[in-house]
Write a structure and sequence with these properties.
390 residues, alpha+beta, hpI Integrase, Chain A, 4 domains, three-stranded antiparallel beta sheet, 14 helices
């Protein structure tokens, strides 16, 4: 019997047919996780494959299923799409005169060595949808200035258009936008775990758990290969810009979650950032409504790294070099944003008391800090161990 490639359930609905040059392909919809997939060919026993494109479609309002569902359109030729072809697919809802420019721009970014999931393409598509004339720099600057973006996003949009101008040999004066320094939002560990436990997908749960234990960037985990996992060590061989490669020791729980995933590709997570981002948005809404916890809506993929860096800063008493090493930063400036004050509960500390001068000396050598004194009794505490750090 057929089973859902996402959750393994055999409870399926037939969900229409796809007419292709290969013949008629039957679509199916999982009744458990609402994941839609298709057969390859007409043989019902044929192998299922994943592709890196997810679209959302609204169901009939009278249907008992949710209003949004995940779609996995399985076609053999879709596996061979390159970045330019994927960008062409994404640009189908744009004006006809802008499609060619964006496809050419995607190919240019690929030749320049930019990663396939760069946000440059998304920002350029938004500018085109806003009616910006890409051949007119002044019009583009006006659209960027009037957009309700933060200055950091506007700065990134100017960098994206600057690459377009270099491709088209257009001379323009880049506007000045500076990234505003803000404190990182650091969620509680229980909220991060609640989001992991709420997912119905083994792959998504393993992806989030991997982010939590490695403190890695989402793009680094998407490029993780099976050969990078050996025993309890995960090697980050494909760091993003500003990061260094490195190795991280992980738990047996994470290894079990990873070993339960299908090994149909050299990549552990054979998908794209756009796909997992849409899955996260759906997961957050469902989990926040189920658990009645609106703080889950604020969690992003990088929240796991921000939580890890902040915890390292607390447990190492702000040791910048240790944090820099474990987060694999190239520059210390990137590490400094994690040096801020966090509020911890009493159970996050080891408590000790001292009444004599010798005991005070021993506690000081052990890393304890005095925080109170009452009737000749000195109260000391220090953070509990975190990831093997003392």
């Amino acid at each position: 019997m057929l089973s859902c490639p996402e959750c393994g359930s055999n409870l399926l609905f037939k969900d229409g047919k796809r007419y292709t040059t290969q013949g008629v392909i039957q679509r199916f919809l999982c009744r458990c996780c609402y994941f839609r997939f298709s057969e390859v060919g007409s043989d019902r026993s044929s192998t299922m494959h994943h592709v890196s494109t997810i679209e959302r479609q609204s169901l009939n309002p009278t249907s008992a299923l949710p209003s949004k569902r995940q779609v996995c359109a399985v076609l053999q030729e879709a596996k061979n799409l390159n970045n330019a072809a994927e960008s062409k697919t994404v640009a189908e809802d744009l004006p006809q005169d802008a499609k060619g420019s964006l496809i050419k721009y995607a190919a240019y970014l690929e030749r320049q060595g930019y990663y396939g999931d760069t946000s440059y393409m998304d920002l350029m598509r938004i500018l085109v949808k806003d009616g910006a004339n890409l051949q007119n720099p002044e019009d583009v600057k006006t659209k960027i200035a009037r957009h309700k973006w933060k200055d950091s996003v506007k700065m990134l949009a100017t960098y994206a258009y600057d690459q377009f101008c270099r491709m088209e040999n257009i001379t323009w004066t880049k506007p000045r936008y500076k990234q505003q320094e803000t404190l990182l939002y650091v969620p509680d560990e229980k909220d991060l775990d609640a989001l992991i436990n709420s997912t119905q997908s083994k792959r998504m749960a393993a992806y989030l758990q991997c982010l939590k234990e490695t403190f890695a960037d989402p793009g680094e985990i998407l490029r993780l290969e099976w050969r990078d996992i050996k025993d309890n060590i995960i090697t980050i061989n494909h760091p993003v810009k500003g990061h260094l490669p490195g190795q991280v020791e992980v738990s047996n729980r994470l290894l079990s979650m990873l070993n339960a995933l299908p090994k149909t590709s050299k990549l552990v997570f054979p998908t794209s950032y756009a796909v997992v981002r849409q899955c996260l948005q759906s997961l957050r809404k469902r989990a926040a409504m189920k658990l009645q916890n609106p703080k889950l809506l604020e969690i992003s993929f990088r929240s796991y790294r921000h939580w890890g860096g902040s915890m390292l800063a607390h447990y190492t008493n702000g040791n910048v070099l240790t944090i820099k090493k474990m987060l694999r930063h190239k520059s210390v400036q990137n590490t400094m944003k994690y040096i801020h004050t966090l509020e911890f509960r009493d159970e996050d500390f080891e408590i000790a008391t001292a009444t004599t001068e010798e005991e005070v000396k021993q506690l000081g050598e052990a890393g304890f800090t005095k925080y109170d004194e009452m009737k000749g009794i000195h109260f000391y505490r220090k953070p509990k161990r975190f990831r093997g750090l003392k």
